[in-house]
Specification:
Largest sheet: 5 strands, mixed
Number of strands: 13
Shape: globular
Oligomer: single chain
Number of helices: 10
Bound molecules: acetyl coenzyme *A
Helix content: 25-40%
Distance between the termini: 17 Å
Strand order of the largest sheet: 1-7-6-4-5
């Protein structure tokens, strides 16, 4: 049996930082409120003209470097983003051109904060069936472009960043299973209700019913983690690390509590960069791989939840 295995990780955060104290000067909020309600202390924001693909390119090159693969040898790109550079060509194709790898499939997946989980699940299938051998899976966002900086309910949460992994075929276990879900009945609770076909609104911005998103996210992420463990006949003790979507520390704590998982087994980076949507899981994974917490052979559970709602998880033998 052939698995797809993560052979390299990379990430990138843009240089410009907005702290909670900076936000105090922009909207009616406090550092204390933001820290206690979200766990976020600072967020990185793309410079003028710096795009989602610009961030992705740095993360991708770092992941390829870690995997020891030349950019020109990539034969498959799955790119999760809600903030594409252009209507088309898609971000996968734009990244392909930057890397100089030609001919393989390159596409983007638009499932908000679950974008990386969807892209990973799709790429995993292609690697396992032999149709991709050096796949790049990306999550990259410039959410600052669709954040309403005058709305304290959302401006304190969202930010920019990118993460990437390289998948290659392997006889040793790698990705053990992936699980994707969506429920469109919740479409209005978290959205950016503007677009090409419907017509662009004068102000392109995220709107969110924070309380309701919070409650459903905790339920669905809990179910998703339980589903993933059950599908593999495992219980939570088998897990070395939970690598959750870095949306809000209280959502992460609630998910861990529901699973009775100690916070020492949870990778947390939200404090440093806020909610970077599709970039969040590969960013957190890369940080923990590079600082030595995540090591080869460990069992990881990745999960994310986002607008739509869309959500997904993956069990990974790293
Ligand atoms: N600063 C100060 N006060 C604020 C702020 C702010 N930035 N934002 C809201 N408030 C006020 C509200 O106006 C309200 O005041 P009131 O009681 O006088 O009416 C009070 O704080 C409480 O507001 P709530 O919305 O009930 O606050 P809550 O504890 O629910 O926290 C939050 C809000 C942080 C948005 C929370 O609901 C949340 O985390 N939701 C999940 C949202 C999320 O993570 N979305 C990301 C995308 S989905 C995902 O990635 C999982």
């Amino acid at each position: 049996m052939i698995y797809s295995r993560i052979t390299g990780t990379g990430s990138y955060l843009p240089e410009k930082v907005i702290t909670n104290f900076d936000l105090e000067k922009m909207v009616d909020t406090t550092d204390e409120w933001i820290r206690t309600r979200t766990g976020i202390e600072r967020r990185h924001i793309a410079a003028d003209g710096q795009t989602t693909v610009d961030l992705a390119e740095v993360a991708a090159r770092r992941a390829l470097d870690a995997a020891g693969i030349a950019p020109t040898d990539v034969d498959y790109i799955a790119f999760g983003t809600t903030t594409p550079d252009l209507v088309f060509p898609n971000c996968g194709v734009l990244l392909q051109q930057r890397l100089g790898c030609r001919g393989g499939p390159a596409f983007s997946v638009e499932t908000a904060c679950a974008g990386f989980m969807y892209a990973l699940s799709i790429a995993d299938k292609y690697v396992r069936c032999g149709e991709a051998r050096r796949a790049l899976v990306i999550g990259s966002e410039t959410l600052s472009r669709i954040t309403d900086w005058s709305d304290r309910g959302t401006a304190v949460l969202f930010a920019d960043g990118a993460g990437a992994v390289v998948l290659e075929p392997s006889e040793a276990p790698g990705i053990l299973s992936t699980h994707l879900h969506a429920d469109g009945q919740y479409k209005d609770l978290l959205c950016c209700a503007s677009g090409v076909s419907k017509g662009f609104a004068p102000k392109l911005k995220i709107t969110m019913s924070g309380n309701e998103v919070f409650k459903i996210a905790v339920i669905k992420l809990g179910e998703s983690v339980e589903e993933t463990l059950a599908a593999n006949g495992l219980n939570k003790e088998a897990l070395d690390w939970l690598v959750p979507h870095q949306a809000n520390i209280r959502i992460i704590q609630a998910t861990a509590r529901r699973l009775d998982l100690p916070m020492e087994k949870v990778i947390l980076t939200v404090k440093e960069h806020g909610n970077t949507s599709a970039a969040s899981v590969p960013l957190a994974l890369d940080v923990a791989v590079r600082d030595g917490r995540i090591t080869r052979g460990q069992l990881l559970l990745l999960e994310a939840f986002g607008g739509g709602f869309t959500w997904g998880s993956a069990l990974v033998r790293y």
